[in-house]
Amino acid sequence: MEEAYVRLLCPDCSKDWESTPSDLPGHETVYDCPNCHASRRLAEFTRTDHDLRTLKGLQ
After folding, report:
1. Domain locations in the chain as residue ranges
2. What percent of the chain is helix, strand and coil (3-state, nearest 5)?
3. Rounded distance, CA 30 to CA 1, Å?
4. Per the confidence metrics, is the pTM higher than 0.85?
5. What is the pLDDT of residues 23-53, one digit of tens each?
6. Which residues of 12-26 are buried (b: 16+ CB within 10 A; e: fewer)?
7. If you ran DSSP here, which 8-state letter would residue 59 be given?
8. Gyration radius of the chain's alpha carbons
9. pLDDT at residue 1 greater than cutoff 60
10. Which SS3 state, helix, strand or coil, does residue 30 take?
């Protein structure tokens, strides 16, 4: 089975990265950017609506 990835983008510093949904907290959880440490709900870091739906669907 192929594992899904969620694409993330920090709204503050524009760092982009990918992660598997199983490695991330829930979409409503406050999450810190690994680059600039900005704190926001994880849902705000998802790059697209598709990434957010993937995150919600696989957690």
Report:
1. 6-57
2. 25, 25, 45
3. 30
4. yes
5. 999 999 999 999 999 999 999 999 999 999 9
6. eeeeeeeeebeebee
7. -
8. 11
9. no
10. strand
